Amino acid sequence: MWKMAKIQRTLVVLKPDSVGRSIVGEIISRFERTGLHIAAMKMLQPSKDFFYYHYETIGTMISRRGEKAFNRQLNTMMKMPVIAIIFEWVEAVEYVRKLVGSTEPKAAAPGTIRWDYAHMSFDYADEVDIGVPNLVHASGSVEEAEKEIAHRFKKEEIFDYKPLHHAFTR
Ligand code: TYD
Predict the structure, then answer these.
(1) CA atoms 26, 32, 34, 38: torsion sign
(2) Is it the case that residue 7 has pLDDT exceeding 90?
(3) CA 116 to CA 64: how far, in whole Å?
(4) Does 137 participate in catalysis according to the annotation?
(5) Could you read off the pLDDT of 41-66 as tens digits, one per residue?
(6) CATH assignment at residue 13
(7) Does 160 fall in a domain?
(8) For the chain, how many structural domains are there in total?
């Protein structure tokens, strides 16, 4: 294990709107071009119970926003398969959230993934009763990343290697 302090792993999920629009390559390259590298990746069609664990058991969504919000989100997340990726690099959790942008695409900063690939407001999504399609999920904290990674990946599915470009980074 070559890892040092400050090197973190974070979970990114390319949601059904990324997969369905066939833009996963573009989105993955947004992360890769900054120096983040893939430690694990898989496509999956999670069950309702799987999303319950992700959004409620780990993310406390029902407690925070109610059952209706969870059901909307579940509906959006179950439309198509998703792609789960572990990205690794310096302070990856905070950095990836910054690249992804804020939850509501309308409010996300220009240059972030959620701004550049979507235009949608919470008001509109509520009116039509859908979970906001915002392309990507990214872990919100180091603790959440650890739980989300353990939920999706077995130890043997996660790869520990030193990318070639790290010749320039230490
Ligand atoms: P949340 O965990 O609060 O945000 P994030 O995905 O940025 O960590 O919410 C989970 C998902 O729920 C979010 O990606 C999109 C959806 N959502 C809505 O549809 N409407 C809302 O008002 C909020 C806050 C979230």
Answers:
(1) positive
(2) yes
(3) 28
(4) yes
(5) 999 999 999 999 999 999 999 999 99
(6) 3.30.70.141
(7) no
(8) 1
- Cα of 80 vs centre of ligand 1, distance in Å, is 18
Q: Is residue 106 part of a domain?
A: yes
- Cβ contact 130:75 at 8 Å: yes
User: Where does residue 90 rank: exposed (0-12), middle (13-18), buried (19+ CB within 10 A)?
Assistant: middle
Has residue 161 been placed in a domain?
no
Per DSSP bridges, beta strands 7-14 and 82-90 are antiparallel
SS3 letters across 25-45: HHHHHHHHCCCCEEEEEEEEC
CB 122 less than 6 A from any atom of ligand 1? yes
Model pTM greater than 0.70? yes
Flag whether 169 is in a domain.
no
> Pick the catalytic residue: 54, 137, 165, 166?
137
Q: For residue 155, give both structure tokens.
A: 């130890």
Return the H-helix or E-strand segment holding 83. Answer: strand 82-90
Instruction: Select from 53, 38, 44, 49 the least CA-distant residue to 19.
Output: 44
